[in-house]
Amino acid sequence: MPFLVLANFKSHKTIPEVKSWLETIVPVFEQYQDQLEVIIAPSFPHLHLLSSSLNSCAQDVSPFPPGAYTGAVNAPQLKDLGVKYCLVGHSERRHFFHETHQDVANKVSELLGVGITPVLLLSEKDIVPQFAALDDSLVDRCLYCFEPPSDIGGTTTAPLDVITQVIGQIRAHTPAPLLYGGSVTPQNIANLLPLNLSGVLVATASLETSSFNSILEVIAHAR
Ligand code: PGA
Question: What's an example of a GO molecular-function annotation for this chain (predicted)?
Answer without folding.
Answer: triose-phosphate isomerase activity
